[in-house]
Design goal:
The chain is of the alpha/beta class. About 50% of the residues lie in helices and about 25% in strands. α1 crosses α5 (about 120-140) and α2 (about 45-55) runs parallel beside α3.
Length: about 140
């Protein structure tokens, strides 16, 4: 039976997150998985939707995608910290297999390099992390 993966994608900076999604899709191609994408308004909402989806019991793993670019206010710090904390809480307390692909950068150029499939390809990295965590979760949790 294929692994079921939910890809939770922030719509904010959509041109960047679409490239992250493409990196995920290329990585999952040929794997024994079925993937579903759900979009949320921003990175802050990603942990919430993963928690809701986890309650359904339909998914074996999750990939969190988004982009937060530093601005002129402290909003960046709150969004970065709380989205990361929320995902870590889900991974540790609920033992969810989560691949972290939320970019936290100083400027758009850094985000584009990290998302680009020909450069850093952080979408690929998040997909690989999710697949590995699914395997490890099965080993320890069943």
């Amino acid at each position: 039976m294929p692994h079921r993966i939910l890809i939770a994608t922030s719509r904010y900076y959509e041109h960047i997150t679409r490239e992250l999604e493409a990196g995920v899709a290329e990585t999952l191609e040929g794997e024994d998985v079925t993937a579903e994408i759900i979009e949320v308004p921003g990175a802050f909402e990603v942990p919430g939707i993963i928690a809701m989806a986890a309650d359904s019991g339909r998914y074996d793993g999750y990939i969190a995608l988004g982009c937060v670019i530093r601005g002129e206010t402290s909003h960046y710090d709150y969004v970065c910290g709380e989205s990361a904390r929320g995902l870590m809480h889900l991974a540790v307390e609920r033992r969810l297999a989560i691949g972290y692909g939320i970019l936290t950068v100083e400027n758009e150029q850094q985000a584009l390099v990290r998302a680009d499939r020909k450069q850093k390809n952080k979408g690929r990295d998040a997909a690989i992390a999710c697949l590995e965590m699914i395997k490890l979760r099965k080993k320890f949790v069943g």
